[in-house]
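User: Here's a chain of 163 residues. Predict its fold as tokens.
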Amino acid sequence: MRDFERKVSKKGKKDANTMGSYLALRAINPDVILSSCALRAQETTDLLASKISFSGEIHYLQELYLTSLEEILDIVKIQDSDVESMFLVGHNPQLHELANFLTDEYIHKFPSLGIISIVFEIEEWSEIESVLGTLNFFIFPKQFKYYMPRDVRSYLPLGKAQG
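Assistant: Prediction complete.
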């Protein structure tokens, strides 16, 4: 099977459910979601969107599949100024490079289903390259492997929580 057509694995679905539970708990809901159109990215996007009860626009973009850092930045820079927050769902190493480029932090490893939140003091997305963002949080599934906070567990479907 071609990489582009690979589905999310069983573990990937479980991890998406856990990460979505965390986002729902924190009431994190973007204005727009930009996702790679690779099948596993689309499935991950749909799982996360469902978990957070997302009702905004989702754009599945070929341009986010195994692309360059510059192309991802170009996509972000053309977003409307009324978009205050967005999710980017894509692939490594590009998202890892993007996270390290946009903040003063250095993220050594950006695992599958890692989620980073970066806050920018900008008026327009076109300014994103000229301002370093501030790391708000960085989470990934293995953080919840042995201990899952009770609040996150309560967002998981019954019988699926581990702890």
